[in-house]
Amino acid sequence: MVIVRYYATLRPITKKKEETFNGIKKVSDLLEKLKAEYGNEFVKQMYDGDNLFKNVIILINGNNITSLNGLETELKDEDKIDLFPPVAGG
Question: 57 forms bridges with which residues in the sheet?
């Protein structure tokens, strides 16, 4: 079971601060699950076409996936995944 925590504009879409998922093996699998579960609103917040927006931040236990194995980073039980969509402002 992995724990997914949502931030900023993702919270109104998911209507949750966090939730758990079983059987998720990689970050890419998790994102596919979230796309299927939360649909177009989730996709619009996270994706530019088929790719994640460049300024999306995904942390696994506090480590950015860009310093791990990217979307192919493997997940294990009790991993905490933080999802930050692009944030605008100034």
Answer: 84
